Amino acid sequence: MNRSVRKALRWFMEKVKVWIGVSILLISVSALHANVHAQSGSQSESKYGGQAETQPSATNIVYIKVERPTPAGTPSYLIRPNDEGIAGAEIGIEDANITGKFLGYSLSLAHQGAFDSAATDVIANTSVVLIDSPDAQYEQAVRSVVSINPSALVVNVASGKDAFRQQHCELNVLHTYPSYQMKTDALGQWLRTKRLSSVLTLRGTHESDQAYLNAFLRTAKKFKLNIVEEKIWQASFDLRRSAFSEIPLFTRTKKPYDAIFSADTQGQYAYSLPFNTHLIVPIMGSAGLKPLGWHFTHEQWGARQLQNRFKEKFSRNMNDVDFAAYAAIIAISTALQRSENNDSDTLEPVTGTKLFNALVDDQLSIAAYKGRQLTFRIGTRQLRQPIALAHEEALVIHAPLPGFLHQRDELDTLGDATTTCKDAL
pTM for this one? Predict the structure, then answer.
């Protein structure tokens, strides 16, 4: 090896030694800086409550599901699912907690079937109670909840009786399930659009059937519909034996009619009406064209994603009680996002009264897959929402229908938006 090559090699080795030394020095300084920064950050989080140590503000929700005995004669395919409503609330909890994870709050769900000692303890330590009750037990259920926890927010997720929107004025009560009046007004708009003005009304003997029919009679007056005749279905009829002969005879009238409205909340006879009446006309109400808060064929505005998730988890379709429970959870989540407690250093559970005031007085809007921002009516605490007009296989249209306008909100063409909680129905 000649002299010039050896000289170049020595120069290179010296440079490598310098580079290695500098690298070791830089790594040492970097490690020292990281250690100091970690200690400083730990002290800072300890002093100010850093994000890693912050626990979400927990809001407890209780679902009270009062038993609904199935009347004799109801077909098995019309019996309500055991998890009706509860399933919708569970999906709502999942969606709400995704947002809550980033905003510092969380929701938990418990469900009870009776007002026993265990339920009393749970209700006493909750902020929100969802009531899923037959009409006959609804008022007592609300009073029982309030006697245990006066500040709780109570949300009706299953009863459509309009009279309940004129009661409990002094309490924190909201309704996410659409009222009978909202549903029948949707049918009234459809009838006027189709120029069908003469209607035969049928009802069962249950008290909820009477409440549903009363709502339609108010709709008929509102939209200037002619009630040809009112008939009551007698439980003595045996549809399993002679539906084909009983129904045509039952629907025979002296005057012709353009449509039939049936109020059959217990599933006793309405399922036998389509294509089996004396005059073959559109059937609506509890059979045929149904006004619903939710229908499983609704897929607009992102609803398809919700429908798919629900069916994958519960192996059935989502119905309108499920959606009312879901909407109640999303409403609570929306109120929590606006809560002043979320901006404070110490996160504490929000009271039901505060949630009620935020949703009603502040008119917070709720996004719930219906293409509109939904809000609660101040007068009746009812959630404004479109009503799906659908039959067994498909969605026909959402009401309010085109052409039906309101000076404040088109959704107020559905249901009574002029009365207040203290006004008589």
Answer: 0.84
